[in-house]
């Protein structure tokens, strides 16, 4: 086991399952002290408990990333459990399949509240803490290939993921002088509960005929020949939290097996 991240205090939001859980496990394996933050408190505690059973430092926190007081509580809990905050992965997100002309104002606000506003609030509160500590830090946001291309019928989701790229670039410009690196990861098609929601949406909207059809169609042309597993994202997550990426900021790295080539 490498200990590249020994002693680093790292929050991962949306870490109770899927990509966030895989990232948290990967970071933990490199010695980091984890705060497993999720709206699903019970599932978050299960992940934290399993990390502790393996001898790692981990604490679970219930958070709704779209609510500032809740996010402040999460930052406070991480600092009180691990003494400081070195990095935060703003990974929590939601998706919805809806044809362009059917997106309601309510749909827009629900998706943007979690994926856009939620990332902004978590960045602001974490960066305030890092500036107060005075020794920099790392902010890593989860965007998507949908933050690089607009996908129909995921227009509002795509807009929220473009917003994450914009927040990443703007904060990188603002806080480089404070030694804070801000980058994003853009996954492709990852086999998680989220894709089950997206896939069911395709069926419910009459856009596909059977379960898994949308997942298979989106995955068909991936250059590396298969859709992503959550574990495919842990390498780049560890890199962006580690000193190896100290001279990198403002970037949104596509990790999609070869779907969007820019
Ligand atoms: N699965 C994919 O193909 C894919 C592709 C690109 C980007 N992403 C992004 O990766 C991230 C993780 O996605 P996933 O596939 O692991 O999804 P997932 O649905 O499996 O997990 C998301 C987690 O976020 C939590 N969450 C949801 N709303 C929250 C809130 N308001 N506050 C705190 N926690 C909340 C959920 O409880 C869940 O544990 C998301 O930002 C998603 O948009 C996913």
> Under CATH, the topology is which?
Rossmann fold
Structural class determined from secondary elements: alpha/beta
- Measured between the Cα atoms of the first and last residue, the distance is 34 Å
Low-confidence stretches: none
Please summarize what this structure is.
The chain has 262 residues and is an alpha/beta fold.
Describe the model.
This protein has 262 residues and is of the alpha/beta class. The chain has one domain (9-191, 230-255): NAD(P)-binding Rossmann-like Domain (Rossmann fold), CATH 3.40.50. The chain contains eight helices and seven strands. A seven-stranded parallel beta sheet has the order 3-2-1-4-5-6-7, with helices on both faces. Helix 3 (68-82) packs parallel to helix 4 (105-133) and helix 4 (105-133) packs parallel to helix 5. The longest helix is centred in the middle third of the chain and has 29 residues, at 105-133. It is globular. The two termini are 34 Å apart. Nicotinamide-adenine-dinucleotide is lined by residues 13-14, 16-20, 38-40, 63-66, 91-95, 114, 118, 142, 144, 187, 189-190, 192-195.
